[in-house]
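Task: complex structure prediction.
Instruction: return structure tokens for all chains below.
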Amino acid sequence: MQGMRRFLKRWCPMRSLAALKMLLHDRSTTAGSVLGVVAIVFLVGQQLSVLFGLFNYMSVLVDHSGADIWVCTQNIQNINGAGFMPVRYVDRISGLPDVEWVEPLVFGSASFRTREGQYQPVQVVGLRNPRQACGPWRFYQGAQDALFDYEGITLDRLDLNVLGSPQMNHFYEIGDIRTKVLGITQSIRGFAGTLVFTNMVKAKEILKTPAGRCKAILIKVKPDTDISAMIGVLQKMFPRNEVLTTADLSRRTRAYYIKNTGIGGSFGFSTLIGALVGIIIIMLTMYTSVLNRTKEFAVLRALGARKIDILIVVASQSLIIAAIGIFIGFLFLALFLAGTLDSVLPSYMPTWILFYHAGFTLIMAMLGSILAMRRAIKIEPATVFR
Amino acid sequence: MSEAILKLEGIARDFYDGRELRRVLKKTDLEIYPAEFTVIAGPSGSGKTTLMTIIGLVLQPSEGTIYIGDKKVAAYSDTELANLRMRNFGFVFQQAELIPALSVVENLLIAAGVQGGSISSVLREKSLALLEGFGLKQYSHVKAQKLSTGQKQRVAIGRSLINDPKVLLCDEPTSALDSESSTIVLDTLKRLSKDSSRGVVMVTHDPRVFPYADRLIKLEDGGITYDSRNSTEGGTQ
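Output:
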């Protein structure tokens, strides 16, 4: 504490120190303003984390495919809208020199029959080599070996309730085809429904995929291969198909859902409301704080403070409030993210977004203080003599 | 006779009271000299506070010119006036008007650091010396709000001196004090007025202050009616 005092005395200009001490003195007003910032950080952060969680669901298969390049049907808008294409393309691609592996993929909607006889929609993903391409990557029970069994499927732990609590090693019907639960994945969910992984043969049987057809072909290139050059080669090879990088397909899929499901607008609106609520709280508390300190600001003006000095005092106070609010808000956000980890609520916060979020909150706090700043610089030094 | 530190030429001030423009300070000429304790006295509404705020460059006059030394200052911008206030004037208000969030010593230092910049160790020592002179050094790190009214007013005088002002302006500084504290404050101001580089101007309606004055100016209805320096009635145009 003594060290902190010495540091402030040595390095903090008197004007900024006064700003800080005024804040600490007027605790209730400061707490109100901090609450406003915490509201912005938490409400906006929580909305963003759910949005990013949904983003992950939208492109989960693409993002975890392990492939560099995808060959799909032409004009593909999102991965779930892929049409059928010849599986023999796999052989032609595997002949190219820079290809490490090529795998076909089938997927589509089907109905899972629960023990009670109800039907639940599921997304079946059929893989030829689950250890290489698109295989489930986190297991709660079982392992990828489950998909080498002719009837083996995996379900996700978070979907077990919806599917009537299916048990490991028990048989269930999907699309009237007998399957056996041999693995439970951990938090692998899709935007279009529960993800069920199985082998290629079983998936084709369930989805009634025409012979010799698949939904996409995944390609992994050798290290140091020029991916865009490879895409050019593949595009020439398959002019009636679309060849995309994994990142491009992921972006396209997310953009499709954002545009066509209203998610973007809905989350944008609630984020805006969160920001507005915070700004209004900051605006009111900071303005009240300046009104309560009219005499103090007038004294400072009489002592020689310029308008810019008063502006700096109020702006410093806003920045201090914002910094404290961001810290507390991030703590709450961390608790929220930890609490919703592996829960049915999709929540994910990329690290880079935190920097933008902090910057955005600082701007919001400053915007919320504009009214207070305007009021503060209008205070006449003569006020102190009245 | 020493040169005037401050000169007011034809200063007047009008206020709009919502219905009409009212002249609260008639055209006034006034010179403030160093080493002089000037008391401006008058009843409420006589214009003495208006005159003092104009002297202190807090309020712009509606007419007339102000000179600090030879420098004409009436047409300066708000920022320039703030700079001049900081360098040339010390203020002691009716109430001490200390910043309650700051400690006693910080209340002195804020007057030196109000425009930013770090506080030098020389200034810190000076502030402690000022407090020692007022018998308040032991309270230097106490929050200002914990002091008695008289102690606060002495801190306010210390604050007004931190920048070595040419003019110390006091707006009825004893009005809120008991007689014992008033005597201490007046003795202090009288002592400070002996400094050959500084003039002290005090506005009051309290006749107990008059014996301390080197120069007494009486104000009535916005005009000077008596100035002991001239020892004649008048001075108002």
